[in-house]
Design brief:
With 356 residues, the chain is an alpha/beta fold. The chain folds into 2 domains: 7-161 and 251-351, FAD/NAD(P)-binding domain, CATH 3.50.50; 163-250, D-Amino Acid Oxidase, Chain A, domain 2. It has helices at residues 15-26, 51-59, 63-69, 91-98, 107-118, 130-134, 149-155, 218-226, 231-237, 270-273, 282-299, 303-332, 338-351; strands spanning 7-11, 30-35, 46-49, 71-72, 76-79, 85-88, 103-106, 122-123, 139-142, 160-174, 180-184, 188-194, 199-207, 246-254, 261-262, 265-267. The strands form 3 sheets. A 7-stranded mixed beta sheet has the order 6-5-11-12-13-10-14, with helices on both faces. Strand 15 and strand 16 (265-267) form a beta hairpin. The termini are far apart. Keywords: Monooxygenase, Oxidoreductase. It comes from Streptomyces tubercidicus. It holds the Pfam family FAD_binding_3.
Length: 356
């Protein structure tokens, strides 16, 4: 007797949604992906892929392609505004532990690769009724991001994205650097990472009121705040143009969800465990979610049982990362006793084996 092909609906066509569609389709599922945007973004800054994410991409069958489009992280450091060193990232220690260093890839490149591998996506489709999908598919995967409508529908408005107290600015400039630096001041920080095509990614964060904006003056404000920092930062802010500065407030999910599952619906990625970007793990964990969800659904034919197993495997780990990222955010934006904060940072990183 031929086994009935199983079906899945994926709500959200971002990194987690596309990875899940690819993973399930490789396992013989019929998958429909619904993305509310009309197209994927064609511009964007780089994101980091830690070894666990690269392992997930290998499981998806696109690891080699990702490595060809990305560049390895070769060095990195946390600095003071005067350029003094707080701590150094020990990339060789990471290689010894995991077999590979992290890599950097542009978000549009990763999205494009995943879409090409995953196949068809229905764009411009906003799903308003999860119940209707539940009646038509064996499983519904909600990958609809930070402000997930699915999460609100399943668990109510109490579990929502909350402002962390800081805003971020980001973009790219011409010119290439080889190392990653993150510079910590009092309530402000500035990060620099290599990009592709001879360009450099940068980001800045500052403690400001939620929703505050400086129309037409964002670049000028960044120069006022960071123009007196060390040469590496000054070199970036001196080249900023207003049109290329993207500003976003920072949020995390709080309180944490009691489960990532309701019946035959499961939340993944930011919909389940949105975290501040301080660990660089948001996209990475969405990729791991996709692979682990497929493993659970493949191992157990009963969908509710498989989803419960997935929840047990992923929720404790990802919620721990949310807490750690929030703590890192507080440390990075501390306005008092920066020397004590920097010493605590060195100790914490050294205990984790990430520093040389």
């Amino acid at each position: 007797m031929t086994r009935k092909q199983r079906t899945a609906a994926v709500v959200g066509g971002g990194i987690g949604g596309l990875a899940t569609a690819l993973s399930l389709r490789k396992s013989g599922w019929t998958v429909d992906v619904f993305e509310r945007a009309r197209r994927f973004p064609t511009a964007g800054t780089a994101l980091g892929l830690w070894p666990t994410a690269l392992g997930a991409l290998d499981a998806l069958g696109v690891g080699a392609q990702v490595r060809s489009l990305s560049r390895p992280q070769t060095s990195g450091a946390f600095l003071r505004p005067d350029g003094g060193r707080i701590a150094t990232l020990d990339i060789e220690a990471m290689k010894r532990r995991t077999g590979e260093a992290g890599r950097l890839i542009s978000r549009p490149d990763l999205l494009s690769l995943l879409q090409e591998a995953a196949g068809e996506v229905t764009f411009g489709e906003r799903i308003e009724d999860l119940g209707a999908l539940n009646g038509s598919y064996d499983v519904v995967i909600a990958a609809d991001g930070l402000n997930s409508a699915a999460r609100t529908a399943l668990f109510g408005p109490r579990h929502r994205a909350r402002y962390v107290g800081a805003s971020s600015w980001r973009g790219t400039v011409d010119g290439e650097i080889g190392s990653i630096t993150e510079t910590w001041g009092e309530g402000r920080r500035f990060g620099i990472t290599p990009s592709s095509g001879g360009r450099t990614n940068w980001f800045a964060c500052a403690v400001v009121p939620e929703g505050q904006r400086e129309p037409g003056r964002e670049a000028a404000t960044l120069r006022e705040w960071f123009g007196h920092w060390h040469t590496g930062v000054r070199d970036i802010v001196d080249r900023l143009t207003e049109s290329e500065v993207l500003r976003l407030d920072l949020y995390y999910l709080d309180p944490p969800l009691p489960s990532y599952v309701r019946g035959r619906t499961v939340l993944i990625g930011d919909a389940a465990h949105a975290m501040t970007p301080d660990l660089g793990r948001g996209a990475c964990e969405a990729l791991v979610d996709a692979v682990e969800l497929t493993r659970a659904l493949t191992a157990t034919p009963d969908v509710p049982s498989a989803l419960r197993a997935y929840d047990r495997a992923r929720r404790p780990q990802t919620q721990r990362l949310v807490r750690t990222a929030r703590l890192m955010n507080r440390m990075a934006h501390a306005r008092r006793l920066p020397g004590l904060r920097n010493a605590a940072m060195r100790t914490a990183m050294a205990v984790g084996g990430a520093l040389g």
